[in-house]
Design goal:
There is one protein chain. The chain has 8 helices and 12 strands. With 289 residues, it is α+β, with helices and mostly antiparallel strands. The protein has one domain (5-282): Sandwich (Jelly Rolls), CATH 2.60.120.330. It has an 8-stranded mixed beta sheet. The protein has a 4-stranded antiparallel beta sheet with strand order 6-11-8-9, with no helix packed on it. Helix 2 packs across helix 4 (110-131). The radius of gyration is 18 Å and the shape is globular.
Length: 289
Amino acid sequence: MEVLVIDYQSSDAAKKFIESIRNTGFGVLTNHKIDHQLIDTAYQDWITFFALSEAEKRRYLFKRDYEQVQDGFFPLDVAEVAKGNTIRDIKEFYHFYPCSKKLPACISVATSQLRLELLAMAKILLGWLEQALPVNLKQQLSMPLRDMADEEFQTLLRILHYPPLMDSIEEDAVRAAPHEDINLITLLVAASAPGLQVKDAQGNWYNVPCEKNNIVVNVGDMLQEATDSFYKATTHQVINPMGALAKVSRFSMPLFLHARNEVVLSKRYTAEAYRNERLRELGLLEEIK
């Protein structure tokens, strides 16, 4: 199983991207047009934030409110529990949306600009993905894939901090347990350290290439639903490092490109119904009373 590294500006980029996505659910893009300095600035801003005291970070704590976008800081004690798992991931993170009103003072405009550039890139990739669909599946779409994208409310830039591993961590706890993403596609600015792995159909795990400033792309469950599994969401995880790396923080910044609430994904689901079902499974959304 090989996740391809694709030159985004090459003449056969779309073809190779589709090949990798179809075979592995993942593709890695290099030589893209997002400014590397912009990426570096955004990372440095958030490294500064996660170095703050716990009390200072909790000033920006998210709120469990079904009616509101869940932006803000998610500490270690409310991190996700992967679907089918019982132990929380070892991570803390911050949810950033365009409507976010409580950004920390140390965060510059680089974060919002990076989100916009990743969003624009994601819509191009959705065009590539749709172009490669069989005719019958194109006709089944409720609208073009790129038109499903929610640019303002649901599409999320998540900034993740995996802290150094402590001797007291819960047995079997990992940085990110095996899971699939909820959304249409995910664009992940290459993490500050390796650890991301993808699983093949036989249950074997493979490392996803991690070179600075590359963009890792993977299929989410919404795209799988909308394309009748022509594109499949692949199980992936972030493993705990060994040796000296276990004492080093890891940072990553995925953009989760979501469909608008009203978008019909299939006969079974709208995007809103699907998203809320999964968020409740992850413990990030309380049951509606």
